[in-house]
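Q: Hi! Curious about what Sugar porter family MFS transporter looks like structurally. Here's the sequence.
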Amino acid sequence: MTTTSPAPAPARSPAAAVTGAAVVAALGGLLFGYDTGVISAALLYIAPQFALSELWQQVVVASLLVGAIVGVGLGGIIADALGRRRTLSITSIVFTAGAVISALAPDLATLLGSRLLLGFAIGTASLSVPAYIAEIAPPEKRGSLVSINQIMISSGILLSYVSGFLLAEAGAWRWMLGLAGIPSLLMFFGLFGLPESPRWLVARGRTDEARAVLRRIVGADRVESELSTLSGAVTAEDSVTYRDVLKPAMRPAIYLGIGVAAVNQLVGVNAITYYAPTLLTKAGFGASAAILSSVGIGVANVVFTLVGLLLVDRIGRRPLLLVGLGGVVASLVGIGLLYAVTDLSGGWGVALVALLITYEAMFSASIGLAMWLINSEIFPTALRGKAGSFGMFTHWGLNLIISLTVLSAFEAFTPSGLFWLYAVFGLIGFWYLKKYLPETRGRTLEEVEAVLRARARR
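A: Let's find out. The predicted structure is below.
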């Protein structure tokens, strides 16, 4: 027995319907950002309450990422079996449950369990949200609509910093964690009015339902042409195996997808996202001042993500990425120098915050944006889902490793040594991307594929 998609709302134009659906779905991105960022402030108060050593502080942060890796591994399977919209609904429930349990956690074990649950939701959302938006969006609006998810992630991180600052004086870490339940409930109820992905419906042979959804999101005059395109794409992808993905001709693209994801993590962005207040308190800042400084970092994240989105189709991927990555490396070198030659008192502390904000700005406008964009452009359509998973696992795996080592590395290498190590990784990444990343602006996916296949032959 099959279920039908919600009846279309004739009063809304196709553009309004698709934009509304994208915003509701992208609340999953907001939750992704909030739940990854909020621990940076909450950890200042969780650590003394549960008497956590630096190792266990890192475990609390990393538990979310363990769950995310599981979510990435299972999220695609769940979305293919149940549908994109139903998967998003389940994900919103898991987000809500994780927020409530973490806020009420009486002990460390419960807190870790709730973080694993939230991580699973984040991993699933990181796959399902952009996939759903891409599959309901008309081709001419797909880039801008999918980018809503990235803006939501950045906004979620900023909101987590703001809530941390507002609740810092009371030390109310439980409220910091629990507030994530509000957008997750909004997402759950908002999803009731959204259509299922027409692509998923076509893949399940539910053509009449797909036709009804397409009438709602692209207009009656384009239904049959879009339906024909979807049918061809589904047929092509169903015939692809991982053996096809790993053929020699695909290896340059696979290596590039992994390389972009690796550079994204190895320049240390999540050392700052997860631990900025902790690092600043170690540098002599008070708790409230450290959290307020992290709000500035969050603002830079959102603003320069928007700047990157405005520039990426104007100046191209390569110039934006390479200039931004150069700025990231310069910021890391400067941060290391400050730790090496000053005691960070007075104006030097302000200089440290300024360099952290500069770092976040350069990262957000370049490699932070490019990781997701490049992985969506370098693979043929039929292979994109399976091939893109290599970059996704690289991203989350390195994220986990870094989150487990930041505070220990801070002590082992000294602050200067740690930031300079990230700068070295950035320089290696700059060389690699300058050498191997083709410009994809203005090229069709087929033209990008031809460039990478030519490299494979060489």
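A: A fun detail: Confidence is low (pLDDT under 50) at residues 1-11.
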